[in-house]
Design brief:
Blueprint lengths: L1 H8 L13 H16 L3 H9 L12 H32 L4 H6 L12 H4 L6 E4 L3 E6 L12 E5 L2 E8 L8 E6 L12 E4 L4 E8 L27 E9 L7 E2 L11 E8 L4 E6 L8 E7 L2
Antiparallel strand pairs: 1-12, 2-4, 3-11, 4-10, 5-9, 5-12, 6-11, 7-8, 7-10
Length: about 300
């Protein structure tokens, strides 16, 4: 009686294992039949409850722990390598390689790619040089003084030197004025006398005769008489071609300017820009050359 009531009121039913005397099987059959009489729809519910899957706890992933361990090992290894680096470098310095060991080291071909160096380097700038064929001194203090054509170059605050350069017939349309100093070990090093600040010698282009000149009717400087030239008859200044530094080594050159296209000569005036400035020498055509010259870049 007690077992039958407990079975009917319970939501689940577990059959008893049969005994050897066979009484257990009979009791089981009776209990199942009485359960069918009381509630016909309990059997499907009991059968469905047996098929419900039971959730099993999943194992935690081991990958994050493995990454942490590897990172920790890598940090320890890096620390050890940094700590051993000074000792390793000191051993290499204390025991340098011998000549035989250095020769045994694998060296690359040092000349590899040198055949292409000439193609990568820009072409050297080659110039044609022109020496002045007229040199005249004029003075703004003695405006009517005439020294005439010669080889004396005299540049001060009050004195200027006029030079006429033949323009090279061939080459690019790029000219410049250059100062060529005497070599240091040359006997001509004492020929040039400089005083004060000679780092800025102005180079002015003369473009037309003066209004007081006798050749005022001439439209160019071709008929200019350099033997009678003075500061009062100084030709008209045009463009400032550049500034020369006579202390520069190995030489000093103005910026390039367009060569006069319709003229055979370039007439310039050399004057001091600084107050304390003095330059004097003889510009003689002899080796080694010392003085001012006109250069034209070759094409």
């Amino acid at each position: 009686m007690f077992s039958s009531k407990a079975t009917s009121s319970s939501p689940k039913y577990a059959p008893l294992a049969p005994h050897d005397d066979g009484e257990g099987s009979i009791a089981t059959e009776k209990r199942s039949s009485s359960s069918d009489d009381h509630d016909d729809h309990s059997a499907p519910l009991l059968q469905a409850s047996d098929n419900i899957p039971v959730d099993t706890p999943s194992k935690p992933s081991q990958l994050p722990k493995l990454i942490i361990y590897l990172s920790f090992a890598l940090a320890i290894l890096s620390t050890v390598n940094v700590a051993l680096l000074p000792a390793t470098l000191s051993k290499y310095r204390a025991y340098p390689f011998s000549d035989s060991e250095l020769e045994a080291l694998p060296y690359g071909n040092a000349s590899l790619g040198l055949e292409r160096a000439a193609e990568m380097m820009p072409a050297p700038q080659v110039y044609r040089h022109s020496w002045p064929d007229r040199i005249v001194r004029v003075s703004r203090k003695l405006k009517s003084a005439v020294w005439g054509h010669g080889v004396q170059v005299y540049i001060t605050v009050e004195d200027s030197t006029i030079m006429r350069f033949p323009i090279p017939s061939t080459g690019a349309n790029a000219c410049a004025l250059s100062w060529r100093p005497s070599p240091e070990l040359s006997a001509r090093a004492k020929d040039v006398t400089t005083k004060g600040d000679v780092t800025e010698i102005e180079v002015w282009q003369l473009i037309a005769p003066s209004v007081t000149s006798a050749t005022v009717s001439s439209r160019s400087l071709k008929e200019l008489d350099y033997d009678t030239l003075s500061y009062s008859s100084l030709p008209v200044r045009g463009e400032l071609l550049g500034v020369l530094d006579l202390t520069a080594k190995p030489n000093s050159t103005t910026v390039e300017f367009a060569c006069p296209s319709e003229a055979d000569n370039l007439v310039v005036e050399l004057r001091c820009q600084r107050v304390a400035c003095h330059v004097s020498y003889m510009q003689i055509d002899m080796a080694p050359r010392v003085g001012f010259e006109l250069v034209r870049r070759r094409e």
